[in-house]
Amino acid sequence: MSSKKSATAKKAQKAAAQKATERKDAARKAAERPDAGAAKASGGADAAPAGPRPVRLTAAALLAAAEGVVLLGFGVYVLIMGLAGDPESPQQAEMLGVTVLALALLPLLAARGLWLRRRWSRGPAMITQLMALPVAWTLLQNGGGLIAAGVATAVAALAVLVLLINPTATEALGIGPRDA
Fold first, then answer.
1. CA distances from 90 to 73, 94, 105 (A)
2. What is the spatial distance between Cα 160 and Cα 164, in angstroms, rounded to a whole number?
3. Which of 32, 148, 162, 170 has the smallest count of CB within 10 Å of its CB?
4. Contacts of 137 (CB under 8 A, 6+ apart)
């Protein structure tokens, strides 16, 4: 049994050494590329790509920021009403306010990342929009004045999704086909 373990351990060590060698070779090749020095000098993979920000990316950032500001305002309102108002359950109102305030951070951070053209920001921005669609549907189903809020939420979410899927926006964020 111990000979099987040692043979397996030797194979694993050999595979790990081979992967380390491959990584070193890849790093050496990357350092030899003429554009590698510029990427390192500008801050690496998370640096903003050069050139002007596309209008579509700017629009997506502004819409995501607007959604975050609306959520922030709603969270502050619910928190204040929970503390100063007369809700049925002050604890639930306060917890809802704190939760909405925390949820407002996601679109605000994503909007800031989009504005600064950070590639990581596309994922949180798209997730926020996908989460907004069921909220819009629920608002539409409740009728009354909530229909307008539901339509606005759905239109904003779909607009940001379309803007972020656009090839111009993905290229501006440095997201593109991987080199083979």
1. 18, 6, 23
2. 6
3. 32
4. 150, 154
Place of tokens 């503390």: 83
pLDDT tens digits, 3-59:
555 666 667 677 667 766 776 666 565 555 544 444 444 445 556 667 788 999 999
Q: 10 Å Cβ neighbour count for 67?
A: 25
Are residues 57 and 172 in contact, defined by beta-carbon separation less than 8 angstroms? yes
What is the residue-wise DSSP string for 14-57?
A: HHHHHHHHHHHHHHHHHHHSTTHHHHHHTTGGGSPPSSPPPHHH
Distance CA 21, CA 41 (A): 25
